[in-house]
Amino acid sequence: MSFSDREKQLIRAAFTWGQITHKEGYTLSDLEIEKSVLFRRLLAGRPPLAFPPPLRHGFPWYEVIEGRGEHVVNASEASPECSIIAPGSKPGDTCILIDGAFWRVAETVREREEYIVEWGEYPLQWRLRKHWEVNYEMTQQLNNFRKDNPNAEIHFDSRPGHREYSEFRIDDEQTVWLSEWQLSRIGLSGWVWVGVPVDAPSSARLTPLFQDQQGPLVIGEADKKRGTGWLRIELAEGEFRFIKLGDKLEYQSLIPTAVTQFETLLHGIQGEELEVMDWRDDKPLRHYSVPTQLAPLEQFDLGDENYNLVPDNAYAG
User: Fold this and answer.
1) What domain of life does the UniProt record list for this protein's source (predicted)?
2) For the segment 95-105, what is each residue's pLDDT rounded down to a tens digit?
3) What is the pTM of this model?
């Protein structure tokens, strides 16, 4: 018996889906696989992430890991009461409910206004911030009502200080403000998590070989003219991401090529696995091994290295 390529892909996706769901403690059924976002992702050729992603309204939320976009969400008040069920949290940790899933609060910037949050095993952070905007239509309606009913009394339940409510507030000039919670990634994009974290190589001492106005552009082995070379492809909030170009590179020619022929270097990368390194404060932060075909190399641009990198088929289905 022989199978078509599509049938082979379906079998591989179903097998991988079964392994992952069983490992995470879910029962298996035909109904579940039909609804599974993970299964559709596997069929589209995307592998599972290194760790389970956050949930959003009960479904895996891959975009919040792999991209750097801003998301409008619903959020509850922060509390330690549900820390026992929040992934990666310890009893007593402060947690907050975001679109139906509990996230760990790493830092309270402003109570009920802004938090730094984390999820599960990912060494990543997000900023959860309440954003206020004037609602001109409601402001006009309120002003018209007061004009037509000058003796009417309007009462709102309020806390001391500003008259502030869960979704809106009215300032002293009778302007109506509406709020929404916004969740955004801090730091580098998360496309690397289709790969696996690996231990840093211990043999070579790495140092910046060339820096531009944004920071280190090329990293190589200290006190050598030839050796391992790394090229910067992303930067965000003091963190830099590099990909390994090779092991025996001439630094004298590599540096000008990195400045003038950035895309040529990227497209010249060979091999099935791409070595990626995150860098901060002049030292390696994390290392990854990523399948080369899953790295969005065509999207990297030396002139614009702070972008939202989400592959086209990241959440197909």
Assistant:
1) Bacteria
2) 999 999 999 99
3) 0.75
